Amino acid sequence: MAGSDEPTDVQRDLWILVTAHPDDESMFFLPTLRNLLLPNGNNQCLHILCLCNGAYERSSDGPIRTKELYDACKIIGINSPSVTVINEDSLKDGPNEVWDGSLVAAKIMDCIKEAVLSCTNRDDKRTRWKYVDNTIPPSAKQKAQSINLNILTFDLGGVSHHPNHVDTFKGVRYLLHEKAYSTRVSNVDSNAIHSHMTLSNDTENIQIKIRVTTLKTISNPLYKYFFWAFYELLPYLVLLSLQLIWQLILFLVGRRIWSRNPTRDESIMVPHFSGQTNISETTTRYRMMEPTLAWRAMSAHQSQFVWYRRLSVMFSRYTFINDLVELLPDESCLFPKEEEDQNLPSVVAIQEEESDPKFLLATEQMNALRDSILPPSLQLRPWKRVYSLSRDGDSFIAFQRLVCGWNSKNGQHSTLLVVRTTHGEVIGGYADIPFVETVKHPSGGGAGSCLFKMEQGMSENEPKISVYGKSNGACKRIVLDATRRIIAFGGGAGEGGEDNGFGLCLEDGFLRGTTARCEAFGNEKLVNGGDVFEVTDMEVWGFVFGQL
Q1: pLDDT for the residue 357
Q2: How far apart are CA 396 and CA 382, in angstroms?
Q3: Given this model, what pLDDT does residue 154 score?
Q4: What DSSP character marks residue 35?
Q5: Parts of the chain belonging to CATH 3.40.50
Q6: Closest Cα partner for 410 from 350, 488, 346, 476?
Q7: Least C-beta-crowded within 10 Å: which of 3, 95, 118, 174?
Q8: CATH 2.60.120 fits 13-215, yes or no
Q9: What contacts 287, CB < 8 A, 6 or more positions away?
């Protein structure tokens, strides 16, 4: 940490290790942590975020394992203020628990804010800092700063394929794809991707440059616990033995000769096992030859230090070597450059089985909606049809299962709902928050959500899109009411009763809907001829990144 109590200009990198359980840091990431904490390491500003307290079998285990984590980190060289442990019912330890990617990302963002402000001695101003739109430059009265943030976590394999490890990775990936502003910066020397988030208050603006690295999973258990030593550790031990023999020979028979020429090296050059090696542009290897440190750190987790963990500490490759691979944003998540905005490629809709019905929208209509409604972070992504009335039936339960399942399991939280009426009108809404049961999130949200209606333009290939609520910044509710079995956009003051206050509302069976003026969206009625319309087809589209 910085030595002064005054706010400092950012000069160092910040590392945040995101783990799933207490003991992950000692079992899997110790070579990396140890190298980062060396006096000549990359950085000493290091934080650990553990997403659960390890209370798997009994809730009383949580405080015990939290204290054990603090003790283990102290042995490693990390003080308790730099360690954060989450204790929430929605992030429970267990192989059958599913962690929501957006919630994991939110917890990481909270930790980033705390770590950045702590690392730069801005603790007393913490309540005034907030994340702001990454595309807006700092104002003239704000001092612009930047900090390099390195997030370290599991990869998609999760080291041991534990579901909580995998969900931790998905949460970090969600943050990188959904919360960060990623662009490709081309120059003479490189064609790199830059990702960042922005913290701001009245007088300062800190751009947080994000780099995510993941711990490579060794899937072959024989190599993980046995053969790695022959390929990677044994050569070092052989060279070390030769060095010791050579030094013994020098001591016994030749030291007087060599001592007359003090500039001459008296030993065989043996590479140090501990250290850092850049394997490629995106892969870094950290090595550590301190097995006693690994044993002491794991033994601090006394409640979990059972026989198989003892064997793992002694024989696992992760005790000695970490391979870190940089996680780059998916190409479809990059924000298009300004000069590219008018020349975006056509929307790519992921094809389905030939027996499935055709899409409700033509490619030209998809392009028009993309250009008029979607934020830049979604404009290059392929579209995936999550629900279709003609394909999946008119069941509210089917809609809830498919759309909510898409939101929670795949980490894809933005969706586009499109409706075609019996009069041929195309209307709908874009939701930038997930569809969840309203009783779970009664206050709603979604400042970027909007409603739209599509009309025929001057040309058949250029439909006219009227958009409502995209730029007003108001809080708009996205309603999924399982009791009344309705799906709706809005909920602000409008004409008529409560239901008619929705800008767009679809009833169970999805054969009938209503529309009204809604203050939150600032819309007019989306159809001609009254408040009520009949539906011929409806689709919900998601936007794909990475592996599904």
Answers
A1: 64
A2: 26
A3: 97
A4: H
A5: 13-215
A6: 350
A7: 3
A8: no
A9: 31, 35, 273, 274, 275, 276, 277, 320, 321
Q: What are phi and psi of 179, to 5 degrees?
A: -105, -25
Considering only CA atoms, give the Rg of the chain.
28
Task: Compute CA distances 535 → 148, 216, 507, whole Å.
Answer: 51, 49, 10
Q: What angle do CA 292, 294, 300 make, to 5 degrees?
A: 105
Quick check: 431 and 414 in contact, CB under 8 A? yes
From residue 33, alpha-carbon distances to 37, 41, 46, 278 in Å are 6, 10, 9, 16
Calpha distance 153→29 (Å, rounded): 9
β-pair partners for 542: 384, 415
Encode burial over 9-18: b for 16+ CB neighbours within 10 A, e otherwise: ebebbbbbbb
The percent helix, strand, coil of the chain (3-state, each to 5) is 35, 25, 40
Angle at 56 between CA 54 and CA 60, to 5 degrees: 75
Average pLDDT by stretches of 10, the chain with 548 residues: 46 88 95 84 77 89 95 94 93 89 90 89 70 81 88 94 93 86 63 82 88 93 80 72 72 56 45 75 88 91 91 89 90 62 64 66 89 85 89 86 74 83 93 70 63 75 85 74 85 46 86 90 89 93 70
pLDDT of residue 50: 97
Only one residue has tokens 């930038």, namely 432
Cβ-proximal residues to 300 (8 Å cutoff; 6+ apart), any chain: 26, 68, 71, 72, 75
- Unique residue bearing structure tokens 């990188």: 176
pTM of the model: 0.70
Structure tokens belonging to residue 350: 């992921």
Residue with tokens 């052989």: 238
